[in-house]
Design a protein that fits this description.
The chain is α/β, with parallel strands linked by helices. The protein has helices at about 20-35, 40-70, 70-80, 80-85, 120-125, 130, 135-140, 145-150, 185-190, 195-200; strands at about 1-5, 95-100, 105-110, 160-165, 170-175.
Length: about 220
């Protein structure tokens, strides 16, 4: 495993399954539900929206721009924090970012082995499975098996590199750009970028169903 695998003591927080923020959020959620201020079903919809729709859209725009703008890609690989901030995506748990890029020979995957460090500013809320002990342990011991569980089958010769997020550094995987997307706009490309592909447990979606935007047109 790469990244900070030998410096796990640097996480700067305890080894409990829940971070202080998680505990506070759950306590507040319980209080609001008990008092009847929040409908649990409505809350689930809100959480799903931020976890799977709004949140990852920021990261998807970062990836799409990296795919289409060589200068931005170079900046992203050299200074991910600054490049992401230049698009207006900043905030708690997104202050110190590192971008890692997938290639035909290398596939990157991100985990936080001690808790749930996650780049909220670009990916929104972390999925439940990302915080789970099975994922945190198996991602290190059997990354290819974990990818298979997510439906990702990589060629035998593809090297898998696992990055351990910490309180100091969080990672954004830049998935490979799908084939047959040369004529797509940034917005159309962003639609192909999934949350899982930016964690490394998935791939970007194929371009099927996308129609290229004519030069000078808007999507």
């Amino acid at each position: 495993m790469s990244g900070h695998e030998h410096d796990k003591h640097q996480h700067g927080h305890g080894h409990s399954h829940l971070s202080d923020m998680d505990v506070r959020v759950r306590a507040l959620e319980t209080l609001l539900v008990d008092k009847g201020y929040v409908d649990p079903a409505a809350l689930d919809v809100i959480i799903d929206t931020y976890e799977n729709r709004i949140g990852p859209r920021n990261g998807a725009r970062v990836v799409a721009k990296a795919w289409t703008d060589p200068a931005f890609r170079e900046q992203l690989m050299a200074d991910a924090t600054g490049a992401i901030a230049s698009l207006g995506f900043t905030g708690r748990q997104g202050e110190h970012m590192v971008a890692v890029e997938n290639t035909p020979d290398l596939h990157n995957m991100v985990v936080c082995t001690l808790c749930s460090c996650y780049p909220w500013a670009v990916l929104g809320l972390p999925p439940i499975w990302y915080k789970s002990p099975p994922y945190r342990s198996r991602a290190v011991a059997d990354p290819r098996g974990v990818l298979a569980d997510f439906g990702v089958e990589l060629p035998a010769g593809t090297h898998i590199r696992v990055w351990d997020s910490t309180a100091e550094i969080r990672y954004l995987v830049i998935p490979m750009r799908p084939e047959a997307t040369a004529g797509l706009s940034e917005d159309q490309l962003a639609d192909l970028v999934t949350r899982d592909s930016m964690i490394g447990t998935g791939l970007a979606l194929p371009a099927s169903g996308k129609t290229a935007v004519a030069p000078g047109a808007t999507s």
